[in-house]
Write a structure and sequence with these properties.
Elements (H helix, E strand, L loop, with lengths): L1 E5 L2 E4 L4 E8 L8 E6 L6 E6 L6 E3 L7 E6 L4 E6 L8 E8 L11 E4 L3 E6 L1
Parallel strand pairs: 2-11
Antiparallel strand pairs: 1-3, 3-8, 4-5, 4-9, 5-6, 7-8, 9-10, 9-11
Length: about 120
């Protein structure tokens, strides 16, 4: 399973970006999906997750109220809408496919990871 994350880039503080994650030759629709991020010299941090049928989502405390995770199973794609971006949101963002259908904030519950997309927020 290969996951491709895209949509990162450079944005000013207060701006918005939308990340996308899709898989080639494999369906994501039966699995929970998550976004994590990692800044230089920091540990990987949970950002958001969504249940397989989108009935439940969860967010890290630092992004609640600013980020929204969603999915379009018909397009085999998961999104992360990021609003009101702050310089501390600067990181490489990774999408991941969970072992099961629920949304999890624990990295060990995810088996497949994308290559990451860099988000840089300038002050």
């Amino acid at each position: 399973v290969q996951l491709q994350a895209s949509g990162g880039g450079l944005v000013e503080a207060g701006g918005s970006l939308r990340l996308s994650c899709t898989a080639s030759r494999y369906t994501l629709r039966s699995y929970g999906m998550g976004w994590f991020r990692q800044a230089p010299n920091t540990e990987r941090e949970f950002v958001a997750a969504i249940m397989w049928n989108a009935e439940r989502t969860s967010y890290g405390d630092s992004v609640k109220g600013r980020f929204t995770i969603s999915r379009d199973n018909a397009k085999n794609t998961v999104y992360l809408q990021m609003n009101s971006l702050k310089p501390e949101d600067t990181a490489v963002y990774y999408c991941a496919r969970a072992l099961r259908g629920f949304d999890s904030s624990t990295a060990s519950d995810y088996r497949y990871w994308g290559q990451g997309t860099l988000v840089t927020v300038s002050s």
